[in-house]
Amino acid sequence: MSPTPRYGEPQERDWNALSDAEFRAIVRAEIEQHYPSELRYAPRRLLWTEQSAWIRRLLARRWIAPGWPVAMGGMGLGPLKQIIFMEEHERWGAAYYREHGVVQVGPVIMRFGTPEQQDRWLPPVLRAEHHWAQGYSEPEAGSDLASLRTRARIGPGNPGEYVVDGQKIWTTMAHAATHIYFLARTDPEAKKQAGISFLLSAIDAPGITVRPIRDIAGHSELCEVFFDGVRVPVENRIGDENAGWTIAKSLLGHERITVGSPSSCEYGLELLRGLARDRGSFERPVFRDRYAALALDVEHIRDAYAGYKDLVARGEEIGPDVSMLKILSSETFAAIADLIVETAGEEGGLGGDGGALASFYRARPMLIYAGSNEIQRNIIATAVLGLPRG
Amino acid sequence: MHTLRESEVGLDLLSDVARSFCTRDAVRVRALRDAGGEVDRAMWGRLADNGWLSILVPEELGGAGIGVDAVAIVARALGRGAFPEPFAAAGVLAPVVLAAAGDAKRLAAVLAGEALVGVGWRPGVTVEADGRLRGETRFIGVAGADAYVVAARGEAGLGLYWVDAGWVETAEPRADGTRTARVRLDGRAATELVAPGGGAEALLDGAVDVARVAVSAELIGVADAALELTLEYLRQRHQFGRPIGSFQALQHRAVDMWMARELAAAALQSAVAVFVDPESAVVTRARAASGLKARAVHAVQLVCTGALQCHGAIGFTDEYDLGLYLNRALALAPWLGNATEQRRRWLELSR
User: Fold this and answer.
1) Residue A13 to residue A185: CA distance in whole angstroms
2) Which of B230, B223, B254 shows the shortest CA–CA distance to B328?
3) How confident is the model over A185-198, as a mean pLDDT?
4) Chain B residues inside the 8 Å CB shell of A301
5) pLDDT tens digits for B111-122?
6) Tell me, what's the pLDDT at B171?
7) Which residues of A touch B264 (CB under 8 A)?
8) pLDDT at A376
9) A217 to chain B nearest CA, in Å?
10) Do A293 and B343 touch (CB under 8 A)?
C-alpha cells in the first residue's frame, strides 16, 4: 500500500484516515491493555530502563514517533491527533514517551540537518536506542538563555572539530541519556543571539561529566553537565554555524499547547476529592467554597484549552497568547496542591512519594520550567497586549 | 427584527452591527444617571427595532427564534458600550418568560419595545385562595416598568401573575445609577399567567439561567472595554521618562487582567454551545450558566479594579469613563446571584 519509509517500518494503517474518535479509541485500548499498571501516575520521571516493557510495546506497534512523517518512520499524525495521542496517556496516568530525540532534536534534524545527518541520527531514535538530553540552561543563563557562555572553538590544528568548554545545568535526565544536544557560543563577538550554534554529542564523550542534582523532593531528575575540552566533530553541528538560536526557537505552536494541558490540574483535583471524602472535608462550607473555586478554574481552563485545540484542528496558527494555558494550568495545579496539603492536616508534613506532598513537589517546578511564568507574562505583555518593552 | 431573521447564519455580521451600534456615548449615560436613572425609552425602542428583544422568542410568537449565541453577542456589545439599558432583565428574561407562558398578546407589546416588563422571580410572594397577591419581591433588575411578572406561591405550587405597575413599586438605586424595582403587594388582584402547579418553577429556572448567560456576556463586554482603556493608558501615559506600560509590575497585572477576561470568554463560548444544543439537559444548562456567571463576575471585578489601580487617581474621577464600567460591573455582579453563590450552585449541580 504505502511505499517503504526511508527509516523504520511502514505503519499498520493511515491513522489520519480515521476519525478522531476512532483513533482515540485505538490509542485508549492499547494503553489500557498494555501500559504496566505499576507505572501509572508515577510521582517522578521514570528512567528508560524502568519503562522498558512499555517501550518494547511501542516499538512493536511502531508508535515511537507519533509526530514524525510516515516516510521517516513515524506515525505521521496530524497536530490534533498528536494531541489526542498525548491526552490518552495523561488520562491513564501513563508516562508519555516524551523522549527528546523524538519530540525535539529529531524534528530539528529533519528540518535543518543534511541527509547524512538524518541517516546517522534518526534511525537510533526510532529504535529507542538513543535517549537525548537537552543542554540549554547554564548557571548564568536561565531565563536569559541567549547569554549562555559554553564555548565551542574550532580546535587548534584541526579544522574538522570543535573543542567545547563550559557548563550546562538543569539538564533533565542527563544521567539516563546516551546523547546530548546543546547550544554553544561559536562567535563571542556577535550580538548574543547571533553567535550560537546547535551541536550534538554522545554523552560519554571524553571530557563530559554528568552530575545529578538531588532536588528538595529527594529525586534526581536534573543534572549538571560539564564540558572540559570535549571534541565535537563539525559534522555534528546542525544547520549553519551561528544559526543555533533560530533552530532552537523553531518549536511548533501546537507543541506549546501541550505544556498548558490541564491534565495535571484534573489529576490533582481527583486526588483532592478522594482525600476530602476520606476526611469529611466536604461537610465544611469553607472547604466546599475553596474546592468549588478551584474545580471551576479547572473546568474553564479546559474550555480555553479546547478552544486552542479547535484552532489546531482547523490548521490555524497558534500565537504567543497560548502561553496563557501554561500559566493558568500550572498556577491552578499549585493551588490545588496547596489545598491537598492543608486538607491532609498533620499528615501534610509527612514525606514519601505517595504522600500529600507529592503534588506540591510536582507542581512547583511547573511554575519555573519551559519559561518561568514571569517570563511568559513578559512575552504576553509585549507580544500579545502590545505594551512597550521594559 | 426583520434584518435579524434574515441573518440566521450571520453571527459575524450581527457582531459587527452590534459593535458599531453600541459605541460608548458617555454623555448620554451620565445624563440618564444624573436625571435619576429612568430607562431611556427612546433607546429601548431602538433596541426593539434592532430585533434584539425578540432573539429567543419563537417565530410563531412573533420572535426571531435565534439562539443564545446571538443574545451573547448583543449583550457583550452592550456591555462594551456601557449601555445602562436593562437588556438581560427586560430584553431577555421577560420575553423568555412570557413566551414560555404562551402569552402572545402581552409578548407582542414587549417585543415592540412598547411595554417595559420586569420579572419578580425570587420567593417572597404568596397567592391567596381568591387570587390576591401578598408579599414582596426585590432585585428585579429594572424599575419604572409598565408591568411586572411576579412568581407567587399558592397551595398548589408556584404560579405566575401579571401585575400592572404604578402603585406597587419603590425603586432602589444601583451602583451605576440605574434602578431596580422592589415590588410590594398587599392583597391586590392580579392576572394569572400560569396557574399554581402549572410548571412555573421549571419555566422560571430555565429563563433565569438564560438571563444569567446574558448578563455574564454583558459583564464580559464591560471587562473588554475596561481592559482596552487600560492597555491604551499604559501605552500612552509617561512617568520617569518612560511609558508606564513598560514597567513589569504593571505588565504582569495587565496580563492577569487579560487572562481573566480570556478565561471568561472561553467559558462564555462553552456555555453558549451548551445552550444552543437542543439536546442539552436542564441540569447541564443550569450548571453551565452558574459556572459562567461566577467566572464572568470574577473576571470583570479583577479587570475593573485592576484597571482602576493601573490608572491611578484619574481612574477614580467621574470625568474619566472607566468609572462607568466599574460601576456597571458593581451593579450587575450580584444580580441573579454573585460569584460565591453561583460557585456553590455549580458545585451542587456538579455532583
Assistant:
1) 44
2) B223
3) 96
4) 263
5) 999 999 999 999
6) 94
7) 300
8) 94
9) 30
10) yes
Positions of A annotated as catalytic residues are 255
Query: DSSP letter string over B163-180?
Result: EESSSSEEEEE-TTS-EE
Chain-chain contact of B255 with A377 (C-beta, under 8 angstroms): yes
pLDDT band at A2 (very low <50, low <70, confident <90, very high): low
Cβ-contact B217, B72 below 8 angstroms? yes
Query: B321 or A256: whose pLDDT is higher?
Result: B321
- Distance between CA A46 and CA A54 in Å, rounded? 12
Confidence of residue A257 (pLDDT cuts 50, 70, 90): confident
Name which of A289, A292, A388 is nearest B246 (Cβ-Cβ): A388
Point out the residue among B242, B259, B264 whose CB comes nearest to the CB of A324: B259
Q: How far is CA B328 from CA A196, B178, B179, B211, B236, in A?
A: 53, 9, 12, 16, 25
The more confident residue out of A315 and A117 is A117
State the ipTM, two decimals.
0.94
C-alpha to C-alpha distance for B306 and B239, rounded to whole angstroms? 19
How many other β-carbons are positioned within 10 Å of the β-carbon of residue A148? 27
pLDDT of residue A351: 85
**Residue A212: all three cell numbers together:** 545529578
CA nearest to B165, candidates B118, B106, B111, B114: B118
Q: What is the pLDDT of residues B189-221, one digit of tens each?
A: 899 999 999 999 999 999 999 999 999 999 999
A/B interface, count of CB pairs below 8 Å: 89
B266 in contact with A at a CB cutoff of 8 Å? yes
The contacts of residue B152 (CB under 8 Å, 6+ apart) are: B125, B126, B127, B133, B135, B158, B159, B160, B161, B190, B196
Mean pLDDT split into 10-residue runs, chain B, 351 residues? 51 94 98 97 98 96 94 98 98 98 95 97 93 94 96 95 86 97 92 94 97 98 98 97 98 98 98 97 98 98 98 96 98 98 98 82
pTM of the predicted model as reported, rounded to 2 decimal places: 0.92
List the one residue out of B129, B184, B186, B182 whose CA is nearest residue B153. B129
Q: Which three cell numbers stand for residue B174?
A: 444601583
Which residue among A306, A382, A385 places its CB closest to the CB of B258? A385
Average pLDDT of the segment spanning A332-349: 97
Chain mean pLDDT for chain A = 93
Q: Cβ(A124)–Cβ(A65) under 8 Å?
A: no
- Using the predicted structure, report yes or no on whether residue A1 has a pLDDT greater than 50: no
**C-alpha gyration radius of chain A:** 22
- Partner-chain contact A385 B255, CB within 8 Å: yes
How far apart CA A244 and CA A255 sit, in angstroms, is 19
Residue A254: predicted pLDDT: 59
Contacts of B294 in chain A (CB under 8 A): 296
Q: Pairing between strand A132-135 and A179-185?
A: parallel
- Could you tell me what percent of chain A has a pLDDT over 90? 83
Q: What HEC string does chain A produce?
A: CCCCCCCCCCCCCCHHHCCHHHHHHHHHHHHHHHCCHHHCCCCCCCCCHHHHHHHHHHHHHCCCCCCCCHHHCCCCCCHHHHHHHHHHHHHHCCCCCCCHHHHHHHHHHHHHCCHHHHHHHHHHHHCCCCCEEEECCECCECCCHHHCCCEEEEECCEEEEEEEEEEEEEEECHHHCCEEEEEEECCCCCCHHHHEEEEEEECCCCCEEEEEECCCCCCCCEEEEEEEEEEEEHHHEECCCCCHHHHHCCCCHHHHHHCCCCHHHHHHHHHHHHHHHHHCHHHCHHHHHHHHHHHHHHHHHHHHHHHHHHHHHCCCCCCHHHHHHHHHHHHHHHHHHHHHHHHCHHHHHCCCCCCCCHHHHHHHHHCCCCCCHHHHHHHHHHHHCCCCCC
Chain A partners of B254 at a C-beta cutoff of 8 Å? 381, 385, 387
